[in-house]
Amino acid sequence: MNKEELLTEYEKTFGEKGQDVFFSPGRINVIGEHTDYNGGHVFPAAISLGVYGVYGPREDKKVRLFSGNVDGEIVEFDIDDTTAEKDEDRFWANYFKGMITYLREKYNGIDHGFNLYIEANLPSGSGLSSSAAIEMLMGIILKDEFNLDVDRVSLAKMGQRTENEFVGLNSGIMDQFACIMGKKDSAIFLDCNTLKYEYMPLALGDYEIIIMATNKPHTLADSAYNDRVAECGRALKKLQQKLDIKALGELDNDTFDEYSYLINDETEIKRARHAISENQRTLRATQAMKDGDLEKLGRLINASHESLHYDYEVTGKELDTLAEASWKQPGVLGARMIGGGFGGSAIAIVKKSEAENFKKNVGKIYRDTIGYDASFYDAEIVDGTKRI
Question: Which listed residue, of 214, 342, 353, 368, carries a Cα 20 to 30 Å from 171's Cα?
Answer without folding.
Answer: 214
